Amino acid sequence: MFEAFYGMVNTPFTRDVPTNKLYDSPTMQEVLGRLKYTAERQLFAVLTGDCGTGKTTTIRKFVDGLDSGIYQVLYLSDSKLTPRHFYKGLLEQLGAEAKFYRGDAKRQLHREIELMRGIHGIQPVVVVDESHLLDREMLEEVRFLLNFKMDAQSPMALILVGQSELWDRLRLQSYAAIRQRIDIQFKLVHYDRAQVGQYVESHLKYAGVSHQIFSDNALDEIHRFSGGSARLINKVCTHCLLYGSQNRHRIIDDHMVKHVIQGELS
């Protein structure tokens, strides 16, 4: 709808923007570098961040950048994940039918991974999204899973991804044994005002727009409303573009952003 009015060839503020067109902030570059190191060295990493800071988007960009001839990504996202379903989910992605008992399934997974690495030279990268919802039993299972060949090596790269409360839990003394096994930990942060402007500019460039649509004062209001959350930036910008096109405004100013926020997003 608004794409034609503003002369866009792509829709700018959606979740399906290609990963190579996403705004590449310094934080994103640092996180991607650490995730790549995690995959190369088969480490245990924890990625956290507040709602809307782009955790899953970051993982998508990371996965798209991996060499499929070297790595196989196994992705799980289940708020009710139990150890048995964990092994079942991974084995199914490897094309195997999981044994019923947890211990058997774990040994089966280790065998499948040894075959994958030994015969095909493929290294597994396991990503567990929404990990802040995992219960204690599942988090404890992670510790046992990584105990491989008398703890001489890790059977896989394992990345837990979740909201900030995941790290708050892991910092508790009762989780010390799990926390001590974590090799790399990093947190996604909200964008500052300058980065919000760069984010909007980057996504408009992907849409094929070379001229400015949002005024500087409009970007101030977008930053104020979103708090630097990518998800909220996308939301308010999309609503503003809809409002602007319907009212034939080529430039979106701060008054229009305030009107949209108060009328549609409050």
Automatic annotation (TrEMBL):
Residues 41-170 form the ORC1/DEAH AAA+ ATPase domain. InterPro entries: AAA_22, ExeA_AAA_ATPase_DNA-bind, P-loop_NTPase. Gene3D superfamilies: P-loop containing nucleotide triphosphate hydrolases. GO terms for molecular function: ATP hydrolysis activity. This is Type II secretory pathway, component ExeA (Predicted ATPase). It comes from Schinkia azotoformans MEV2011.
